[in-house]
Fold:
Amino acid sequence: MFRPYVIMKSQALILGIFLMAAIVLSGCTTAQQGAQGPTGPQGERGAIGPSGPSGAQGLPGISGYEIVRKEVSTSNKQFKILKVECPQGKKVIGGGCSFSGTDESLVIVSSNPTYPNLSSGYTYGWNCAGHNQFTDFPGSFELWAFAICANVES
Structure:
């Protein structure tokens, strides 16, 4: 047979348990982080790690650097072309032209590198062209050509 007072007592008991849990839990608060403590002492140095792999082979460099010089004498109103060549197997990496004097009538017309060319017979070197543009230049002068040559891997 059905007993309503038993059900009501059971419901009251369950409700009481929930109320007690709610009261207990309402007194709890969430944990808070405290202030940071002082820094600890330095630890011991760790062991040295293994060596890394070797790097790739670098590009070839320059060796056998030398400056080759050649000169030619000339005088009034003369135009001169001078070529200086690098030794066999070396390549030109720079160069230039100059005069033995400082007179303003002396003019460098061109200064440029030369490269191998089967039709002209050129090798690596430097070309210079210069002249004395006036007729009243006292005496002769020298036109100098310089080639900076080296062994260069390409």
